[in-house]
Write a structure and sequence with these properties.
Length: 297
């Protein structure tokens, strides 16, 4: 298939491009050309800004995978240009879209966050991250109907990705795992390679969304044990570090966010590798001399 990737040269995007190339698809990348421009030298590039995507009017694609859509205005512009130029539009969304943070077992159809009164649509702040993803999903549904999918994920782990990078670094260098979350706190995450494969599958099969693309719920203790097993030794977990890389409140006010129902995604072909394999592969990547990127916030 002839696919367009918006982004594609950092974090999850690298895995999406690698998966698409391995499957034999023809690719075009649209980005600013500033991040890792040396990657994928044989792939066609369109250089431009999300705020001025006019260059997209020069082509047609079987599918689009949007990995860089944050501002509502930007997503609206690309959607308008691509409405009659692609057969399917897959949007990388977030589990931050849900109105409740405490309800357990929320499906893809659970109520979503409202848009705050008076909030600007052309600025990005963390307070508007979830509502912005909701508005982006809504405008894509209005533009493409059944020809769009929203793939919602949370923590994305693996090579080139920042989440759990401190754990991987600690394992690779003989340190303790730092975790300021409470030991029984629920957590869900996904390997970047599994998420990339699912994004590609949804696009190629033109499956309508939305989907909760997350792994099974674990407690932080269960997850830490699985990661510690990837590097046997005397390593431990520090449950009271000075900094909190997980940003999870201890009072249970965000527990529902990590107890989502992923059955619809699994039925659509989401495949999830086990925790031990994820940890082992990430550890090997770091031991090979790679450095995890800093968290975006």
């Amino acid at each position: 298939m002839n696919l367009l990737v918006l982004g594609g040269t950092k974090n999850l995007g690298r895995h999406v491009v690698e998966a698409a190339l391995a499957a034999g698809h023809e690719l075009t990348l649209f980005n600013r050309g500033r991040t890792n421009p040396e990657l994928f030298p044989g792939v066609r590039r369109l250089i431009g800004e999300r705020a001025a995507p006019d260059v997209l009017a020069a082509g047609e694609w079987d599918g689009v995978i949007d990995l860089s859509g944050f501002l509502i205005r930007d997503v609206s512009l690309s959607a308008a240009l691509l409405r009659d130029r692609c057969a399917h539009y897959t949007f990388m969304s977030s589990i931050a879209v849900y109105a409740s943070k405490t309800a357990r077992g929320m499906t893809d159809s659970a109520p979503l966050l409202p848009w705050p009164d008076g909030a600007p649509e052309d600025e990005f702040t963390m307070d508007l991250y979830g509502p912005s993803k909701v508005r982006c999903e809504s405008l894509l549904n209005a533009t493409f109907g059944e020809r769009t999918a929203a793939v919602r994920s949370g923590f994305v782990v693996g090579p080139y990705n920042p989440d759990f990078g401190n754990w991987g670094w600690a394992l690779a260098h003989g340190g303790s795992l730092e975790c300021a979350a409470r030991p029984e706190q629920p957590i869900q995450y996904i390997d970047a390679r599994d998420l990339a494969d699912f994004l590609l599958r949804v696009t190629v099969e033109r499956s309508p969304g939305p989907y909760n693309a997350v792994g099974p719920t674990r407690t932080m203790t269960e997850l830490a044990d699985a990661w510690l097993a990837a590097a046997p030794g005397s390593r431990t977990v520090d449950w009271s570090p000075a900094t909190d890389r997980f940003h999870l409140p201890h009072d249970g006010s965000n527990d529902g966010t990590f107890q989502l129902d992923n059955s619809r995604a699994v039925a659509a072909g989401l495949r999830l590798r086990p925790d031990a394999e994820i940890a082992r592969d990430y550890l090997a990547w770091l031991q090979a001399g790679n450095i995890p990127p800093d968290p975006p916030h």
